[in-house]
Design goal:
6 helices, RNA_2'-PTrans_N, RNA_2'-PTrans_KptA, Probable RNA 2'-phosphotransferase, elongated, 3-stranded antiparallel β-sheet, Ptrans_KptA/Tpt1, Arc Repressor Mutant, subunit A, alpha+beta, EC 2.7.1.-, 9 strands, 171 residues, ADP-ribosylation fold
């Protein structure tokens, strides 16, 4: 089994296009593991291996169900648990988008949530996927105090809705 290839197939099915393989996700993004395995023609052991050994903690298993933790491009919002964020979070982006973000704020774009990191290094790596990286510092404490809801994607990913530019600055 090619773990990377299966992880990508699972991501597409659970984050972007479940209907393509005949899956239905509930409001929190869950579907039965057996249904995913049947749709992708893989074993439960293979799926469990991807979940257990995936470097980015993209997936979650519970009670015979599976879901992607973050990165959804489906309409609406997959319900993720809210949490108290650290005082500061980081967002990595390409240099060409920084001025617009600092003027207009952060928006999910094609995703359901804005993705933030507790690590400046991780944010820099994310930004590098889109060109010359720039890291923005997010005043999560102030945003949360003003009513922004932060959700836990995994140990390296925090999720939120739109963020006003007053909570952002260059690293």
């Amino acid at each position: 089994m090619d773990r990377t290839r299966l992880s990508k197939r699972m991501s597409r099915a659970l984050r972007h296009d479940p209907a393509r393989v005949g899956l239905v996700l509930d409001g929190a993004g869950w579907t039965p593991v057996e249904a995913l395995c049947a749709a992708l023609e893989v074993s439960v052991a293979d799926v469990e291996d991807v979940v257990r050994h995936g470097s980015k903690q993209r997936f979650e298993l519970a009670d015979g169900r599976i879901r992607a933790r973050y990165g959804h491009s489906l309409p609406g919002h997959i319900t993720m648990p809210a949490g108290d964020p650290p005082p500061v979070l980081f967002h990595g982006t390409a240099a060409g988008t920084v001025e617009a973000i600092l003027r207009d704020g952060l928006h999910p774009g094609g995703r359901q949530y804005v993705h933030l990191s507790p690590s400046e290094a991780t944010a820099r790596a994310v930004g590098a996927r889109h060109g010359r990286p720039v890291v923005l510092v997010v005043d999560a404490r102030a945003a949360a105090a003003d009513g922004a809801v932060f959700r836990v994607g995994n140990d390296d990913t925090w999720l939120t809705d739109d963020l006003d530019p007053r909570y952002l600055r260059r690293a």
